[in-house]
Amino acid sequence: MPQVLFANLPLLLRGAAVTLELASICVVFSSLIGIVAALAQSYGGFLARGTIFIYLYLVRGTPLLVLVFAIYYILPYAGINVNAMTGGAIVVSLYFGAFMTEVFRAALASVPRGQWDAGRALGMHGRWLMSIVVVPQALRLAGPPFINTCVMVVKGTSLVSVIGLTELTLTGNEVVERTLAPFQVFGGVALIYFVICYSLSLGGKALEVHLSHGQ
Amino acid sequence: MTFDPEMMARALPILLGGLVVTLELSALAILLALSWGVVLVFGRLSRFRPLRLICGGYLQLVRNTPVLVQMYLFYFGFALGGLRLSGFVAGLLALVLQNGGYMSEIYRAGIENVGSRQREAGLALGMRPLEAFRIVIFPQAVRLVLPPMANQFIAIVKDTALVSTIAVADMTFRARLLVERTAASYEVFADLALMYIAVTATIAALMSVVEWRLKALS
Amino acid sequence: MSSDTHNRARRRALALGVGGLVAAAAIPMDADAETAGGSLLDTVIKRGRLTVATYSAYPPMCFADKDGKLAGFEIDIARMIAKDLLGDPEKIDFQIVDSSGRWEAVLSGRADFGIAATTIYPTRIQRVAFTTRYMDDSNSMMVRKDAKVNSLADLNDSRITVADLSNPQGADRAKEFFPKAKILIFETSAAIFLAVKTGQAQAGQMDTPVAEWYAHNNQDLKVLPTPLGGVMTNNAIFMKQGDFTWWLYLDTLIRDIRIGSSYEQYKALFNKWFGHNPPPQRFYLKA
């Protein structure tokens, strides 16, 4: 019987709450970054596209762990004092913003040409055209990869443990160091992550089915 | 806080020592993940239902748990249970288990996308199933999977940074130690980021060359 | 710092991908902590809360207890300071840092001071200001009883793996006393303990009080008798340099706690966490 795990479950669940809090914040912000960047990439001017390109290149080529350390140690010197939660939120959002950019860019590109032409034939143009015809379809197409990226965000929050945020992974570490039951505790931690992520992806699939019925 | 470009130059050789470890771990993880992925995809596409379910379950398990937690489990957990793995091996194990899973999905997508019609075409031309696979499906599948595989290789390289938390002296580990000694966080992390970007950009370039060559061959 | 270097620095910071965030924030010049705004002493009193940088995995000095709350000798000392300064030992926020992040925490102003099992060493004095010591320290080796290691010399063997902390002083001691051993480096004493307990290492180098605490609570561990080098050191509170009023306040308060009017409270805390009395107030008094 995994007694140690049960005894420490409340503590671990508190860590999971922090994980969920951080992950939610990061999903929101990284999606915002992704949408803005994807639009800028597809329709922006040279400067916008260039900046996005550099951003994507840098973020996708650097490990999240390194960015977590770097930003946490560097921001204070730029005069921005952040705690682990804020610093973690900034880094993880910026990091997955790049992935979200790709998700939304691909979704925008996958909207069938016919939709654009149909919209134009009906006399729409520019932003109005996009918002009514294209974006909703893009959002629907973006569904599965978006949910995948959300799962990645949840897993990514485990790295913020290294700068001291007492989310699920760090809480698990602390419990293991105190109780010396790594199998039970890390197993429990993995299980909690699994429940969170798998539910997320199941929910995503359900949402996808529901949305496609509207067509 | 001043930014000292000279410090960046001085930090570089120290970080380069960790580059060897990073490259070693990346190369091993890539090779083993490629192989493990092949094994998994056979299970995933098997006609034997329990095997399909087990592989499917395994895949769900690895994609829904963070690699960091797996590394801690393999390093500290196994040691307490009597199996003492070094940080390098524990990290490698976690990387292979995770990325082997992702590789098998990439293979599966490639194989399935090429489609059963191609297979039927091959069979209609009188080939045996295995031949059809080798001559018709495989080349097309390879071209399809190269881009996601390139992405996965880059993800593997980036994930090797995690072993710095279980006392493996890779680039990230050395960078942290250096920052502790010198407080030059800007310079050291700039170096570190540049080095990772150099490695991942090289891989991306190499894979592009491979893709281009394959296209030329067809 | 010339404006040319400054401009190059700003462009490089952008290139790190932090983007507009860093560009928007000016990189401040080094300034005296005691600025026109006054000393941290006034700032903290006005703010009504004290922010302290500390570790969370160094029992019994600063660690997270089974409810996840920070506890330990150093935590209690910090609370004593909060009580004196602000009237309430709970008016304190702890910023958990790690070994390499502790300096940034106080240098950047994120924490008012740090109390984190931190020993005074010459190179550190160049970067931060220390008060007088609040406790003695030294370094010891915590070893597994089944490793058959009874002296420092036994550790100097290529078959032995030692877990060390990441600070440079620990690395120097390792080179001096057991150069042949394999070294694993971790960020916290708790991680070192886990490494030794799981058998990844046969010994761990850590602060003596921490080693003794772990050995006291684990039958399969013991502490080698000689502190490393036989050298005693000082653990002290650290803060940003330049704020004389703040330093003077903390330094005088610590002296009062350790050898002055608050000695009885100090003695009680010391016994609570270390199980024995602290040194007497005066060398000419009995222990």
Architecture overview:
The complex is a heterotrimer of chains A (215), B (218) and C (287). Chain A is mainly α and 215 residues long. Chain A has one domain (3-213): MetI-like (MetI-like fold). Chain A has eight helices and no strands. Chain A has helices at 3-43, 46-61, 64-74, 84-110, 113-121, 126-156, 168-179, 182-213. In chain A, helix 1 crosses helix 4 (84-110). Chain A starts with a helix and ends with a helix. The mean pLDDT of chain A is 86. Chain B has a single domain (5-217), classed as Orthogonal Bundle (MetI-like fold), CATH 1.10.3720.10. Chain B contains eight helices and no strands. In chain B, helix 1 (5-44) runs antiparallel to helix 2 (49-63). Chain B is flat, with a radius of gyration of 21 Å. The mean pLDDT of chain B is 87. Chain C has 287 residues and is α/β, with parallel strands linked by helices. In chain C, 40% of the residues lie in helices and 21% in strands. In chain C, the strands form four sheets. Chain C has a five-stranded mixed β-sheet, sandwiched between helices. A three-stranded parallel β-sheet of chain C has the order 5-1-6. Chain C starts with a helix and ends in a 13-residue tail after the last helix. The model of chain C is unreliable at 17-32 (pLDDT under 50). Chains in contact: A-B, A-C, B-C. The interface between A and B is large, with 39 and 38 residues.
Q: Specify the oligomeric state.
A: heterotrimer
- Helical residue percent band of chain C: 40-55%
Largest interface: A-B, 39 and 38 residues
**Helices and strands of chain C: which structural class?**
alpha/beta
Give the name of the CATH architecture of chain B: Orthogonal Bundle
Give the SSE string of chain B: HHHHHHHH
- Extract low-pLDDT stretches of chain B: none
CATH superfamily of the largest domain in chain C: Periplasmic binding protein-like II
Considering the protein shown, what is the CATH homologous superfamily of chain B?
MetI-like
Largest sheet of chain B: none
CATH classification, class level of chain B: Mainly Alpha
Known CATH architecture of the largest domain in chain C:
3-Layer(aba) Sandwich
CATH topology of chain B: MetI-like fold
